[in-house]
Amino acid sequence: MLSKAIRRVVLVTRVNKRNISCNELSSTTINIVKSTAPVLAKTGYDITKTMYNKMLSENAELRFLFNASHQLEIKNEIAHQPRALACMMYNYAENIDNLKLLEKAIESVAQKHVSLFVLPEHYTIVGENLLWAIKKVLGEKATIPILQAWKEAYFHLAGIFIKRENEIRTNKALQIGGWEGWRSFIVARKVKESSVITSFYLKSKDGKPVLNYKPGQYTALKLCTEKVKACRNYTLSKAAGDNKYRISVRRQEPAEKGAPPGLVLKVSNFLHDHINVNDEVLLGVPSGVFTFNHNHANDEKPIVLMSAGVGLTPIVAMLDFILKNNVKKSVTVIISNRNKDVEALHDWFVASEEKHSNLQVVFLYDDPLRLSSKTLNASKLDKLLPNKDCHYFFCGPQGYMKMVCEQLLKWKIPEDQINYEYFGPTRPL
């Protein structure tokens, strides 16, 4: 494993020399790119949508890294992946003279890239297609100075990503149980948790130790079968410690969301229907920034864990960690679901609450077929949490997280006490 890490350093150096630089940007480039921010606010999505259409149709080696559903405009909503990149382009242009403001966003993306084993050479392909799309969409407005400035700016940012990803990758490879790239795992157990969620317990094929992880982190799962060739990130849904990983996967219903059946969201369903005990899958190293750590346990502030739907998975891992580490302070868990039939791990939460006097678990249901923010609204949240000065962790659909985030901001909760994560490309709340 060490030799692979060393080879990766060599590869990064070679790619950097060819077309990617971490040198400081010129003032001319900074000024030009910053001046394009208003244009990107209007055309950024068209640029990134055009870029992905071309890049994914011409580069099969990149196609499996992306969820096809995130490229689709379903029910007149813009596609998630192009929107996420467009937002990042705009923020980069707006803050190119102060990249410290983007450190959290860069770290989040770098962690995803490490798990998915994104390589330095992939950045070159993305950069070439992005510059082509800028020219395609803007036409004559994309002057030579603008294209040159964005070329320099893009590869500068790519260099930052590559450097950070190499640091993360090397660090993980050198830890006990660590590895780089893809590692073979065997399904040790398959447990149906609800009508829509199934858990897969995974052990290393070679029988050697596996890398520990922080509660809330995810792993990338890669399938290479005749029917499915794709990668997806899945949260590790329990605390580390027994040399096995667990992912709890929700069965998707693409037709219900207006997506073409069979085209998108099929990896999760494939796991449900075709992956069984003793089958082999490939995993990337655990990664992610949405985590609970000892710093959250060491002060006097209570902990609030909230989820809707399959957003439950990182919350389960965090609570499992809290209980196993005998954290004594008050913990409130608020779980929202459509109904009891789709709810996973109910009995585990009940048993945990009975065993730990500092734990309160609240189950909320929305009997209609669709999960909505009505399950947990601002009024309910206000009544459930008389003490507002807490550490908050929440995960679920966008509408749900937006409602929670807005309420916490109304209570003037400090930013460092508000923690959340999207499943899929990050979107603004």
Could you characterize what this model shows?
The protein is an alpha/beta fold and 429 residues long. The chain has three domains: 2-174, Globins (Globin-like, Orthogonal Bundle); 183-283, Elongation Factor Tu (Ef-tu), domain 3; 294-421, 3-Layer(aba) Sandwich (Rossmann fold), CATH 3.40.50. The protein is 44% helix and 17% strand. Helix 2 packs across helix 8 (144-174) and helix 7 runs antiparallel to helix 8. It is globular, with a radius of gyration of 22 Å.
Cα gyration radius (Å): 22 Å
Number of domains: 3
User: What's the CATH class label of the largest domain?
Assistant: Mainly Alpha
CATH topology of the largest domain: Globin-like
Judging from the principal axes of the Cα atoms, what is the shape?
globular
- Taking pLDDT < 50 over at least 5 consecutive residues as the criterion, the unreliable ranges are 1-18, 261-265, 368-373
Strand ordering within the main sheet:
4-3-6-1-2-5
Beta strand %? 15-25%
Q: So what's the oligomer here?
A: single chain
Report the helical percentage.
40-55%
Q: Sheet with the most strands?
A: 6 strands, antiparallel
| Number of beta-strand segments | 11
